[in-house]
Design brief:
Layout (H helix, E strand, L loop, with lengths): L6 H6 L3 E9 L16 H13 L6 E2 L8 E11 L5 H11 L4 E9 L9 E12 L12 E3 L5 H8 L4 E4 L14 E12 L3 E8 L6 H13 L6 H9 L14 E8 L1 H6 L1
Length: 267
């Protein structure tokens, strides 16, 4: 992402809008969103900001990740009256955050910027370790599938999900979205030697646990328990019971949040 910063403009605006890009290992977090008595990414970031500025902040993310889910490029925003420079924020926050979260970038944004509302798309990646032996190093960062996967069949099944559809069959039980219609712009299934299978999905927006449901469904195809056409049947059924199981959270990564730069300048 590229952001324009006019320092003369933003230096006199109070409060400022900060855009924060953060990476985290979700293993020991109960997800992004603040929850009473639980360790969350939002909670850690807000606590660090309060310690740094003396202000109470509400940090809004582009998307909430569930417990155990990771992020390489989560984007969030908050308001602040602090006059610290962005690079000072980045360095100070990283000195205060725990080792499983790191701020990659801090920038001044337009006053009306909203990390969630202005997101135009997201890229998620789901990683599978496909071998007989269980992983040691990546045990909390990938789904271990012992049976050999037919990646070509998984690709054929994935094609049925491209475009605009009602993804009711691929949403989690606690999904509260008013509409289940979503657009998948791209879905790739690739083998990365020696033993990884990676599912990458680019979509305008996603339902809760949608990527994990897609991954679980495509693995059923890869195991040759289902023919690729069964994915279309599940999609058309509009019934969660007709799709595959929900893949475990540790294989899922929020890779990138996409924004319209032209719109960003007009906010």
């Amino acid at each position: 992402m590229r952001w324009r910063r006019n320092s003369l403009l933003f230096n006199w605006l109070k409060p400022r809008t900060l855009i924060i890009v953060i990476e985290y290992d979700g293993t020991e977090f109960a997800g992004w969103q603040v929850q009473p008595g639980k360790r969350t990414v939002q909670g850690e970031l807000e606590a660090a900001l309060e310690k740094l500025t003396g202000e109470s902040h509400r940090v809004v993310a582009a998307g909430r990740t569930d417990s155990g889910v990771h992020a390489w490029g989560q984007v969030a925003h908050c308001k602040t009256s602090s006059d610290l420079e962005p690079h000072e924020f980045r360095g100070a926050l990283n000195s205060l955050l725990p080792r499983d979260a790191v701020v990659l970038d801090v920038r001044d944004g337009p006053a009306g910027f909203d990390a969630r509302r202005h997101a135009r798309g997201k890229i998620y990646r789901y990683i599978i370790i496909n071998r007989r032996e269980r992983p040691a190093i990546e045990r909390n960062r990938a789904w271990h599938v012992r049976e050999p996967l037919d990646v070509a069949a998984m690709r054929r099944g994935a094609r049925f999900l491209l475009g605009e559809h009602d993804f009711r069959s691929f949403r989690g039980q606690k999904c509260a979205s008013k509409t289940t219609v979503r657009v998948i712009r791209r879905i790739d299934v690739n083998k990365e030697p020696p033993d990884k299978v990676i599912i990458e999905v680019e979509a305008t927006a996603l339902l809760r646990q949608m990527i994990r449901a897609i991954a679980g469904t495509l693995v059923e195809v890869g195991r040759r328990k289902w023919l690729p056409g069964r994915v279309l049947e599940a999609l058309n059924a509009l019934d969660r019971r007709m799709a595959g199981p929900t893949a475990p959270p540790q294989g899922l990564y929020l890779a990138e949040v996409q924004y319209d730069e032209t719109e960003m300048e007009e906010v």
